[in-house]
């Protein structure tokens, strides 16, 4: 991959529209300046927020409106901490207590969070579901899905379902809060109507559906939204894991043998 | 268990599982033994069967023959080369330059190969699903041409999972696999026969042939594995090559793996501007 070592050699090739580095005169490997989507990072540090940076890096521009910025800021806050009973949080805590290397704790919890059932992949599936149905009646879509929703352990649609047998009251409350920021948002309106209709079938929006709703409203891509969901969930997961590293392994005891039942198939 | 509308508010299902694990996969009996899918680790497996037999047993519940285990282990072996040009291995190499832990480097490289287009884990899952469906269609009377014709076109040709290897650059793993399969006494199954027909069609029409995913997928379907089982068995398939590239770069000075000048990354974004 080094230049012109043989007649058939190729140059390492990568391109990006996100970041421009200008080199130091004395050393071409070292950057003197770093620009994000054209803006000097030092100027951004003086004048902008982390939320501005997310828009800039993922869309190439700042948020289109103050409402959009407020939406992402609020979602970031709401997702920054999950329940300590969330499987990804428990994975994080498990690794903290068993003294896994501290640099692994966040990646482990984010990997666990990557799944297609209430994990990051479901955010993508939910965005695809929303966009497939956005021009249709939300109420009719919910009614049609309910006809075929037999196994209540399965989500009625990506991003929507029950949590321990009931609608997820916290996610519903978060949706209401987010809706007030941009009540006329096309995706927000559709998802709010869909969720209200799902209530008739004793189900509703889940946290991954909430994330999908806002990311789609803000025109982040379905693929990008997978990682953005993980990113917004990261602070709480890391905090849960780190807290456990300061405790003895006995603070989270293993279940006893009689609590582990081996059955024959 | 299905929750009907009438008992949707009940938490009984979860209450029954509080502080209790119920499973049939196995159990560690501290200080005595371990049960793996009904077998005693120290009385029936340890020092008697191969690691691969235990791996397959853990995933599938099947204690496969020594011959099938040998086939799987050799097949596993050829999906991991110590060559840092390959995407997953490059992750290992870059992790080495950062002095990442070997576990993290190897796990990261293995994740890099969890891909639908290479790596032999997810790509084999995709290829197995294809050849399984293809055999059903073939038995229902469809021709190979019909079966291929239904697939999406990518880069000017039908994208057939497991059959996108340029003929001019044969997959070096196929002939050794055919020899091994014969030596171990396996018959050619119906998936494998169809795979050869598809390969011939692809060679004639597109000058593309079977790759190792195509070959392995047909054989493993003939051995009654499901695509999901093979995906699980093969999760760490590229690990050893990743670790090799990690180990290599661990010894070198910082930033010595394919160093780049600032200008060598092509910038395609907006011109420099003010906030």
Oligomeric status: heterodimer
Q: Can you count the helices of chain B?
A: 13
Strand content of chain A: 5-15%
Show unreliable segments of chain A: none
Characterize the largest beta sheet of chain B: strand count, sense, and whether it forms a barrel: 3 strands, antiparallel
Question: What string gives the helices and strands of chain B in order?
Answer: HEEEEHHHHHHHEEEHHEHHHE
Distance between the termini of chain A: 55 Å
Largest sheet of chain A, in brief, is:
3 strands, antiparallel
Beta-strand residue fraction of chain B = 5-15%
Rg measurement of chain B, Å = 23 Å
User: Hey, which two chains have the biggest interface?
Assistant: A-B, 53 and 50 residues
Q: Could you explain how this protein is built, in words?
A:
The complex is a heterodimer of chains A (265) and B (275). Chain A is mostly helical and 265 residues long. Helices cover 52% and strands 11% of the residues of chain A. In chain A, strands 2-3-4 form a 3-stranded antiparallel sheet. A two-stranded antiparallel ribbon of chain A has the order 5-6. Chain B contains 13 helices and 9 strands. Chain B has helices at residues 12-15, 41-45, 51-60, 66-77, 87-97, 102-112, 122-139, 144-149, 174-183, 190-206, 212-222, 227-233, 239-250, and strands at residues 21-23, 26-29, 33-36, 39-40, 153-154, 157-158, 165-166, 208-209, 265-267. In chain B, the strands form 3 sheets. Chain B has a 3-stranded antiparallel sheet with strand order 2-3-4. The termini of chain B are far apart. Residues 1-7 of chain B have low confidence and may be disordered. Chains A and B meet through strand 1, strand 2, strand 3, strand 4 and helix 1 of A and strand 1, strand 2, helix 6 and strand 9 of B. Strand 1 (14-16) of chain A pairs parallel with strand 9 (265-267) of chain B, so a sheet runs across the interface.
């Amino acid at each position: 991959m080094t230049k012109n070592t043989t007649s058939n050699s190729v140059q390492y090739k990568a391109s990006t529209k996100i970041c421009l580095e200008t080199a130091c005169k004395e050393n071409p490997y070292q950057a003197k300046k770093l620009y994000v989507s054209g803006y000097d990072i030092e100027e951004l540090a003086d004048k902008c927020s982390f939320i501005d940076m997310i828009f800039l890096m993922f869309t190439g521009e700042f948020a289109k409106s103050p409402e959009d910025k407020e939406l992402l800021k609020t979602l970031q806050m709401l997702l920054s901490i999950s329940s300590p009973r969330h499987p990804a949080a428990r994975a994080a805590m498990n690794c903290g207590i068993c003294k896994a290397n501290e640099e692994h704790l966040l990646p482990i919890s984010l990997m666990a969070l990557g799944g297609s059932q209430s994990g990051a992949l479901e955010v993508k599936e939910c965005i695809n579901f929303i966009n497939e149905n956005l021009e249709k009646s939300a109420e009719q879509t919910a009614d049609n899905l309910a006809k075929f929703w037999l196994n209540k352990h399965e989500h009625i649609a990506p991003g929507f379902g029950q949590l321990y047998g009931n609608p997820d009251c916290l996610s519903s409350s978060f949706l209401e809060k987010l809706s007030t920021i941009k009540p006329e948002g096309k995706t927000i309106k559709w998802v709010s109507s869909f969720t209200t209709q799902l209530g008739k079938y004793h189900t509703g929006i889940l946290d991954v559906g909430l994330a999908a709703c806002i990311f789609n409203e803000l025109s982040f891509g379905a693929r990008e939204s997978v990682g953005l969901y993980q990113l917004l969930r990261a602070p709480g997961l890391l905090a849960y894991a780190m807290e456990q590293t300061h405790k003895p392994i006995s603070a989270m005891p293993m279940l006893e043998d009689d609590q582990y039942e081996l059955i024959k198939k | 268990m299905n929750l009907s509308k009438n008992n949707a508010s009940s938490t009984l299902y979860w209450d029954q599982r509080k502080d209790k694990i119920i499973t049939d996969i196995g159990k560690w009996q501290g200080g005595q033994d371990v049960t793996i899918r009904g077998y005693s680790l120290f009385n029936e497996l340890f020092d008697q069967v191969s690691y691969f037999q235990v791996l397959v047993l853990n995933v599938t519940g099947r204690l496969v023959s020594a011959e099938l285990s040998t086939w799987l282990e050799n097949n596993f072996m050829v999906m991991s080369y110590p060559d840092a040009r390959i995407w997953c291995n490059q992750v290992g190499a870059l992790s080495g330059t950062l002095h990442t832990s070997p576990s993290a480097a190897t796990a990261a490289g293995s994740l890099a190969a969890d891909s639908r287009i290479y790596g032999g884990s997810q790509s084999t899952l995709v290829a197995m699903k294809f050849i399984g469906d293809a055999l059903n269609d073939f038995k229902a009377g469809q021709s190979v041409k019909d079966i291929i014709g239904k697939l999406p076109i990518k880069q000017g040709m039908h994208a057939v999972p497991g059959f996108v290897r340029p003929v001019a650059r044969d997959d070096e793993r196929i002939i050794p696999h055919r020899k091994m399969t014969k030596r171990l006494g396996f018959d050619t199954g119906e998936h494998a026969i169809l795979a050869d027909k598809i390969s011939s069609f692809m060679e004639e029409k597109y000058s593309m042939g079977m790759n190792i995913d195509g070959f392995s997928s047909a054989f493993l379907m003939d051995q009654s594995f499901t695509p999901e089982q093979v995906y699980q068995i093969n999760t760490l398939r590229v690990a050893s090559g990743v670790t090799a590239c990690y180990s290599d770069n661990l010894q070198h000075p910082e930033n010595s793996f394919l160093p780049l000048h600032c200008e060598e990354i092509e910038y395609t974004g907006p011109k420099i501007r003010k906030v």
